[in-house]
Amino acid sequence: MVKVVVTGAAGFIGSHLVETLLDRGETVIGVDQFNDYYDPAIKRKNIAGALGRSNFQLIEDNVQALDWNALLDGVNVVYHQAAQAGVRASWGEGFRAYTERNINATQVLLEAAKNASLDRFVYASSSSVYGNAASFPTSESILPKPVSPYGVTKLAAEHLCGLYHANYGVPTVSLRYFTVYGPRQRPDMAFHKFLKAVLKEEAISVYGDGQQTRDFTFIEDAIAANLAAASAPEAVGEVLNIGGGSRVSLKQTIETIEKIVGKPIRIDYQESSKGDARHTSADVSKAQKLIGYAPKVSIEEGLRREWDWVKSLYGSA
Questions:
Q1: Cα distance between residue 129 and residue 150, in whole Å
Q2: Active-site residue, selected from the candidate residues 37, 79, 150, 164
Q3: In the annotation, is 150 catalytic?
Q4: What is the value of pTM for the model shown?
Q5: What's the pLDDT tens digit per position in 181-200?
Q6: Is 309 domain-assigned?
Q7: What CATH number is associated with residue 13?
Q8: Neighbours of 42 (CB within 10 A)
Q9: What does the buried/exposed string (b/e) look like for 104-120 if buried means 16 or more CB atoms within 10 Å of the residue's CB?
């Protein structure tokens, strides 16, 4: 039987990954600190469905506090999803949390992984490592130039994965997620905030002019990428873009949301945030070649599914 560890198990992506792995019959050890970056009650709701399953164990603790040499005994795959998220909060005094949870925690895991017999160590990276990329769609060969402290820490952890692969043979693969969305999306992320505001008949806040573009990736596609990266032998030692297949402006997504909710949305334009890249767009050809990745969920379908979830979370309008 396959045995795996998922860090950040109660988070947005981690909880979906846990449920998918459990449904596949794998034994899952989930680790989550339940820190207060956003309401821990939301995370507990995310993971609630897994708690009663016989093949699941939840450990509530800081990644750096655990005995990983013991925990990784008999484990086949580590899915390292745990991180301190968010661009805006990574400036100033908040930066220490990012270095601890994104860099130091990853190093602790990799140190233990070098002594384990893992088939794969899948690291959740971010498109934030690119910053304002020189070309679109952006391939993995482009030199990363983060424009936020958050992006710097995600890139640093990526480099650690590469070092432990090159020097100790740890079978790492890093997945650069491009703006993942869908049910259970964090409350500080744009679509969650937009849809909640619509439900409460409030204006939405848009930072900048709304012409910035993003490559939005639906949660199911991100999960499929993790599963494929954990099994494809060609993925070992690689860094892969995981995008949604299209580059869409924020203004266009708001128009799509208006179509879905059936009413106009009031917009409160605000000053652009420091550290936000102007555009992102993923060249996923490498992921397609090495792990067979092909995003399947369109932005309209994905937003409809997130809207249904937001209504269930906060109550229908």
A1: 8
A2: 150
A3: yes
A4: 0.96
A5: 999 999 999 999 999 999 99
A6: no
A7: 3.40.50.720
A8: 15
A9: bbbbbbbebbeebebeb
